[in-house]
Amino acid sequence: MPRTHRTSRVMSWLAVALLGGAPVVTGGVAWAEPPSDDDVAAAHAAADAAALDVDGAQSRLDAIRAELARAEAAVQTAAEDYAEAREALAAAQEETQKARDRADRAQDAEARARSSLAEAYRTTARANENGLGPLDVVTGARDVGDVVSTEAAQRAVDRKIAGALARQADLRSSARNADARWQAARTAQQEASEAAESAFATARRTADDLAARTAAAEHERDRLFARLADLRSTSVALERQREADRQERVAAAREADARERAEDAAASSATSSGATEPRGAPGSSAEPQADRPDGATADGDRADDTASGSEEQAAAPDPQPTRTREPAPDPAPRPDPKPDPKPDPPPVSGVGQGTAAQGREALAWARSKIGVAYQWGGDGDPGYDCSGLTAGAWNAAGVWITRTSRSQYLTVGKVSYGAMRPGDLIFYANDTSDPSTIRHVAIYAGGGMMVEAPRPGIDVREAPVRWDEVMPYAGRP
Q1: Which of 359, 344, 356, 433 is nearest to 396 (CA)?
Q2: The predicted structure's pLDDT at residue 256
Q3: Which domain of life does the UniProt lineage start with (predicted)?
Q4: Hey, CA dihedral for 85, 88, 94, 97, is it positive or negative?
Q5: For labelling alongside 132, which of 116, 200, 333, 413 has CA 20 to 30 A away?
Q6: How many domains does the chain have?
Q7: pLDDT at residue 46, rounded to an integer
Q8: What is the DSSP code string of 110-168?
């Protein structure tokens, strides 16, 4: 008898035994005898294998989701690298133009100096031709005073020529230096242009890789859902819904844990820097604590008690001295071991100037862009990238902020996540302790929602806040 048939027969016998009924008749043949031990073992093995297949399919679905999340993070990182490269190129182009303008002005000044020098030489030449040379001055003079005045005039001309020579030499040197700086700026611009092109190519390759991975993942998911439906004797649609529900529960638990970790990290950073709120966090309800004087303790009453006790001891009469032996000299003190350096707390620099009303205005502007396509390095013509959206929103509200998400985090004020208000910025990074790894920024919309330009292929949208891989603080422009 084939193993599969024996396994089916065993499963039927097991069902009969559990239900307490009569043997099941299948295919016109009644089973008169119970299955053997081997058949029971085979049935158990088949059930275990099916369970393993289910677990394996679900594990693979989780792995696919994690792979796509990493690929999406890589796309956002590449997009931010490209945005920075574009900013560097724009700065290099501006510097090149300034250097060209300075070089042109220096060349014009040198040309004018050269013209003045030539005119001075021509004046001297004409004077000599008109009998005003040194010998002519002496022989043609009426008296000594005439000679002196004429020589003084000649010395003035000589000084003018010498000054013109020196000025022309200085300006010629300045013109050469300005031209060299322009050449260097042009080289830097070319390098920045090549870096931007390289960053764009990398970003496009990364996005194409994500698209290919997504297509492959969809195909594999279809196969896995079909396998789960077969193992559980259900439908593919039901298995998709089951998986969606399971992932929703997993995501909710992960997001709750990530938010708790983010808030704990912010609190820990604030404690290590000696403040309950990061500096530059306007709108915080907490008043800044006054600096404690040297020697003060956190427990003021206890410090006062200690001070009072010290005063009482000082006021008590000194006991009669007793004769003691001369103390032995203290051994040479050993240097105290240097404590391990503490890691620097995350930077909390930056200043926020925007009001709550401006934050709401920035949010309203961002919401008006929902549905607009994502564009690499986009500032709205026709689409946006993540930091182009946030910069445009706050610029529209009357507050200028920098163009890239990394520079935005460094320059805006910092607020804890519990103190966020609409319009604040939420930053995501590959390493939340290193602002240089920031890859994405979104605008907080309130109620656990945010507005963002996520990545190529996904339009500007309003979505739930993702708490995984957020920076220690939110930002307030």
Answers
A1: 359
A2: 80
A3: Bacteria
A4: negative
A5: 116
A6: 3
A7: 58
A8: HHHHHHHHHHHHHHHHHHHHTT-SHHHHHHH-SSHHHHHHHHHHHHHHHHHHHHHHHHH
Examine residue 223 and state whether it is found in any structural domain, yes or no: yes
CB contact set of 57 (below 8 Å; sequence gap of 6+): 224, 227, 228, 231
Mark the ranges of the chain whose per-residue pLDDT is less than 50.
Answer: 1, 3-8, 10-11, 13-30, 135, 137-139, 141, 274-333, 335, 337, 341-347
- Residues 93, 205, single domain; the answer is yes
Domain end marker among 183, 198, 232: 232
- Are 64 and 12 in a shared domain? no
The answer to whether residue 290 is domain-embedded is no
| Domain shared by 133 and 172, yes or no | yes
Give the ranges where 368-443 is alpha helix by DSSP (H): 386-396, 405-411
pLDDT in tens, 231-244: 888 888 888 888 88
| Domain assignment of residue 280, yes or no | no
CATH code, 125? 1.10.287.620
Q: Are residues 142 and 17 in the same domain?
A: no
Residue pair 460/374 in contact by the 8 Å Cβ criterion = yes
Question: Does 76 share its domain with 17?
Answer: no
Q: What is the CATH number of the domain that holds 401?
A: 3.90.1720.10
Structure tokens at 64: 């696919």
What does the pLDDT read at residue 213?
Answer: 83
Same domain for 148 and 14: no
Residue 215 is predicted with a pLDDT of: 83
| CA proximity to 448, closest of 428, 463, 458 | 463
For 41, 320, 321, 342, the CA distances from 325, given in Å and listed in that order, are 91, 16, 12, 45
**What is the CA 275 to chain-centroid distance, rounded?**
23
For residues 349 and 407, give the distance between their C-alpha atoms in angstroms, rounded to a whole number. 12
Residues 6+ apart with CB under 8 A from 460: 366, 369, 370, 371, 372, 373, 374, 383, 384, 389, 451, 452, 453
Structural domain of residue 28, as residue ranges?
3-35
SS3 19: helix
Q: Which of 406, 419, 402, 426 is nearest to 475 (CA)?
A: 426
pLDDT of 170 reads 83
Report the pLDDT value the prediction gives residue 400, as an integer from 0 to 100: 95
Residue ending a domain, choose from 232, 256, 281: 232
